Structure formats: C-alpha cells, structure tokens
Amino acid sequence: MSTVIKGGTVVTADLTYEADVAIENGRVAAIGKGLSGDETLDATGCYVMPGGIDPHTHLEMPFMGTYSSDDFESGTRAALAGGTTMVVDFALPSPDQSLLDALSMWHNKSGRANCDYSYHMAITWWGEQVFNEMETVVREKGINTFKHFMAYKGALMVDDDEMFASFQRCAELGALPLVHAENGDVVAQLQAKLLAEGNNGPEAHAYSRPAEVEGEATNRAIMIADMAGVPVYIVHTSCEQAHEAIRRARQNGIRAYGEPLIQHLTLDESEYANPDWDHAARRVMSPPFRNKKHQDSLWAGLQAGSLSCVATDHCAFTTEQKRYGVGDFTRIPNGTGGLEDRMPMLWTHGVNTGRLTMNEFVAVTSTNIAKILNTYPRKGAILVGSDADIVVWDPSKEKTISSKTQQSAIDYNVFEGKHVKGLPRYVLSRGLVSIVDGEVKTREGHGEFVAREPFQAVNKALSTWKEITSPRKVERSGIPASGV
Ligand SMILES: NC(=O)NCCC(=O)O
Ligand SMILES: [Zn+2]
User: Fold this and answer.
1) CA atoms lying within 13 Å on the CB side of residue 48
2) Is the CB of 315 under 6 A from ligand 1?
3) How do residues 168-207 score in pLDDT, each as one tens digit?
4) Is 58 near ligand 1, meaning CB less than 6 Å away?
5) What is the 3-state secondary structure (H, E, C) of 33-99?
6) How far away, in angstroms, is 244 Cα from ligand 1 center?
C-alpha cells in the first residue's frame, strides 16, 4: 500500500519547494512532481514538514510521591494530535536501582505508544554499578544520552563530583550528558526560608527558584562538561542568565546546547499571582515561568541559533495531584503539560509573528534534536529512505485551546483559551495516517523504540583535543642537584 501527499509545499530545515511525497512501507519512497499511489492525501495550501520530535517528556513518571498522569498511550496520542511524531522520555532509576532494571520498566510502559519514542537514561545515583551499566546502556541498549539533575536535593539531585565522573564516562562511551540546571542546595534553603516566613502558596515556588539559581548551575554544568571533554545539553533553559552561559560557551567553541520550552516562551510569571490557588499550582514547574525580559532572550536565542530546540518537558499532573501541596508549596508536584500544543503555539507565536521562519520552525521542533540525538536523517528529515513521520501543516486552520477537547488525560490545560492559527491537517507516524483534520486515528502500540548509536564525530574530536592538550611531564636533561 502506497500513500502520496499531493499538492503541498515541502518545508525542511534547509529548503522550501513544491513537491509530492510518496510513502511505502513506512518510509519516504519518492519526492517529486506528479507522483501517484493507492491513497492520496490532499496537501493543497499546506506545508509538508518532518513530524515534530519532543526532546523531553515525562510519561507516567514516578515523582514527588505520585505519577505523572499521561502515560505512553495518552501522551503519544496528544503528541500526534499536535504534529509531534516522536517523543524522548526518561528512564528514571530509583536510588540504588540498576539502570537496566529501570530500562525494562520503561519498556514495559511504552508498549502502548502510538508514535515512535526513545529514552534518555537518568543518572540519579553514582557507584561502580552505574559506571559499568552505562556502557551496556550505550553499546547494547540504544541510548546515548544521560540526564543529570542538579536540583531536587534529597531526591534526584547529583553532586558535582558525581556529575564530573558521569560526564567523563559519557566522554569515553560517546554519549551526551543532559542537565537539569538549578542549584539544588540554594533552592532547598530558599524553600525553607519562605515556608518559615509563612509564604506557603504556589507563588513561593517561583520565589524559591530565581533566575540566578539556574544561571549559576548552567554555567557550572557547562564548565564541568568542558573539563570532562564532552558536549552538554541543558534541558528547559528558561532565563537570560542560563542562555547567557550557553551563548558565551558556544562563542568560546564549547559544544553546549540549550532547550527552551514552549511554556517558558509563551507563559509568564504573572500566572503565579493568580488569586485562584488551583490556577497557580497547575503552573508549578521547575524552572518556573519568568518575565518578559527572559522570554525575549529565549526567542532571540532561537533566532540566533544559540538555543537549539523547543521542548515541552511534558509532565502532567491533575488538579487533585497538585493539591497535595496545599499549605506547603514544596509538595506541589512539579510539571506541566504541553505535548499537543507545542507546535501550534510555536507556529502562532513564532512563525505568524515573524520571529521564526518556517525553516527555523522545522529546525527547532524536529531537525536539530534529531541531529543532536544522532537519529538524523532517519528522523527529522524528508528524504528518500527517512521514516515517514510527516506533518501536513495547514497554516489557515485555527482553534482555541481547551482541556475539553484535548487528548491529555488531565483536567485542565495551561494554555486554556489561547487561540492558535496553524494546525495539522494530517499527521503520519511511519506512514500510518494518525490524525485527519483533528480526527484521531492513532493506533495503540504502533510506536516503536528508536535505538540511537553512540556519537562518533564530536566525542572523537573532543577526546583528540583533550589528549593533545593534556598535562605532560617535561623531560629535562641535567636536572640540578636538590638544594636541600
Ligand atoms: N520540570 C518539572 O517541573 N517537572 C519534570 C521533572 C523535571 O524534569 O524537572
Ligand atoms: Zn528537569
């Protein structure tokens, strides 16, 4: 069975051109004019783009005494509805748990996925077992990225010595470390101080995590990565201080990547001042939403290329779960949803406003992360042989975002009431037509795990440079006798 997407304009990270796209066996089979197939999808007036890749999701994640409420079924359904055809989730070992056990647990959860997925492995503790299993994870299990939390003291946080050890191991294995960069020690002290002063509402969550906390940790993570000789990817970059650290590092030749979230780009700190406790608590995530100065910095970073990808960090909790933190903001589960809205919100606030070109939109929603994760051009591209993960984007289609019509399992939406213009007409997951004009035709279990090879080029270049510049003993002849 072959499918042809006909009459649209192909938009990739580099090119815009008129062509039909033919699909066979889940792959792009031909690109050109006048193609035909068993099934035709009319793309007149639409842009035919690589499906989105969300670099950062937390589906059914055990966190803060509960589990995030979207699982791989509802989460990937939401992803496809919004034009995202691949998600990258996190396998999260509990303290002392084997990385391989955690991975098996995640494979058990993901069997219901509607679109393709991959994982980052989290480093939540350190020891010889973790050191050894990292090699298996990279060489045998198809995972080349490891996430480190500098925040969540007493839970997921790792210290600098553990991070340095893990980064060096990543360098040896051809893996890329990811970092949640917030100074967990300072946050813990600020939280205690705010609570002691009676400041226990959701707004205190934002007060306890000022931009300096993030800027300091981002810079520290980048410097540690540089000393370890490995590139580094900073997740959910939310402020100018963190962006500045990434920008400066890149100007100095350091391979550091930054990832703003669609939430931070389009929602600001005034959400926490809302008199409705539920409204504010539903928006509690780390880092918190910031002011316009920070938002402008993030948009500028996407335009200038100093920030690479737009993610969601989709970690959705119901209102009931958020209420665990009534009377103590530190117990509000951290996280917000966004999978279904990432692409329409970015198109509306990025492309429709002239802040991003269509090609830049494709780069930051798909192609850049495919390259960073070493899965390009299987993903993130429309090329003959690429997976047919494709979104046919209708720039004239509009809607108002509402939790009543969303795919996510939770009872609200942080973008509630926002009007978007630019939505998928069709979404194809490895050739399977999964969304047709808002109608959901996803197939549970269709999604497959995407194994990713270790990095060759960047890690080789960095280790070569490290070797050339490593400390060397100076060999001297005629050393004078000791003066003692
Ligand atoms: N970001 C957030 O608040 N929740 C998800 C877990 C994490 O990545 O920090
Ligand atoms: Zn995080």
Assistant:
1) 25
2) yes
3) 999 999 999 999 999 999 999 999 999 999 999 999 999 9
4) yes
5) CCCCCCEEEECCCCEEEECEEECCECCCCEECCEECCCCHHHHHHHHHHCCEEEEEEEECCCCCCCH
6) 22
For residue 151, the CA-to-ligand 2 centroid distance in Å is: 8
C-alpha to C-alpha distance for 418 and 196, rounded to whole angstroms: 37
Give the domain range for residue 184.
Answer: 51-384+395-419
In a domain, 484, yes or no: no
- ipTM value greater than 0.90: yes
Ligand 1: residue of 285, 330, 410, 414 to mutate (most ligand atoms within 8 A of CB) is: 285
Tokens of 77: 């359904």
Q: 332 CB under 6 A from ligand 1? A: no
Q: Answer yes or no: is 436 within a domain.
A: no
CATH number of domain containing 72: 3.20.20.140
- How many angstroms is it from 61 CA to the middle of ligand 1? 10
Tally of structural domains, the chain: 1
> What separation in Å is there between the alpha carbon of 28 and the centre of ligand 2?
34
Counting as low any pLDDT under 70, the low residues of the chain are: none
Write out pLDDT tens, residues 341-378.
999 999 999 999 999 999 999 999 999 999 999 999 99
Residue 233 within a domain: yes
Ligand 1 site, residue 237, Cβ cutoff 6 A: no
**Domain annotation covers residue 68:** yes
